[in-house]
Amino acid sequence: MSTTNGAQAPPKDKLIFAPGSNPDDAHTAHQAAQFSLSRLRRSDLSDNPFTQFHTWFTHPQLKGFVPETVTLSTASLPSGRISSRTVYLKELDDKGFVIYSNFGTSRKAADITSNPHAALTFWWKPLERQVRVEGRTERLSPAESQVYFSTRARGSRIGAWASQQSSVLVPEPENDDDGRLGLENRVKEIEKRFEGQDEIPVPPFWGGLRIIPESVEFWQGRESRLHDRFVYTRLESDAGWKIERLSP
Length: 248
Known about the structure:
Layout: H1 49-57, E1 69-75, E2 82-88, E3 91-92, E4 97-102, H2 107-114, E5 117-124, E6 129-139, H3 142-149, H4 154-162, H5 180-193, E7 206-220, E8 228-234, E9 241-246
Antiparallel strand pairs: 1-2, 1-5, 3-4, 4-7, 5-6, 6-7, 7-8, 8-9
C-alpha cells in the first residue's frame, strides 16, 4: 500500500516494521541507515587477530563508548537451545578473551557444562564495526580470578557472594514483596560475614571464563550492505592463522 506521496505505508498488522534512519522523511522512513564511515582491506589487517582486535578496541573514536560491552552466546546440549546475554570483556591475553561471572547457578554455567563452546559479538556503532569470536571455553583458576575480583568495588564483591544468579527469588506476599527482599536479606548476611574485612576471597562458584578463539571475524560496514568481512581461522597445531575475505 502506498501513501499519497508514493511512499510505502507500513503494514497495519505490524507493531514494528523496518524502522529507518529518518522516520520523519516518508520516502526513507523504512530504509535502514547506510554504512559509509570506512572500508577494510587485507593490507589493513595484522597477521594476528589479538593484535588486530586491540587496534580496533583502542581506536580513539571509541573513547567513552564502553567498547568492552559484548554479547556472550552459549548453547545447551543435547537440546541445542541458545541463550545470549550482555557482559563485559575484562581481559585479553595471548590465549583469548576473558569475562567474569557466576558459574554455579547461571544459565551460562549450565550451558558450558554440556557444551564448552561459546561465541562473542562486539558492536561498535561509532565506527560501524563488528567483531565476532567463536571458540571453546576454559575456566580461570581461583588465583587468577582473585586478581580481578580484588579490583571490584566492595559492593560488587558482596553481591557476587549474595546472588545465586538466575535462580528464582520467591516473593513474600505478607511483606508486599515481589522477590527482591530475599536478595536484600542475603546481601545483609554477606555484609555481616565480611564486616571489617578488607580482603574478600573470590567465591568458589564465581570467576573468569576465557573464550579461546577458533575463529575471529572483523566486519566493517559498507554502503548497500556490501560490507567488508575478514575471518581469521586458527590453523592446526596452533601454527598461526588463515585470513580470508568473506562475502557480505
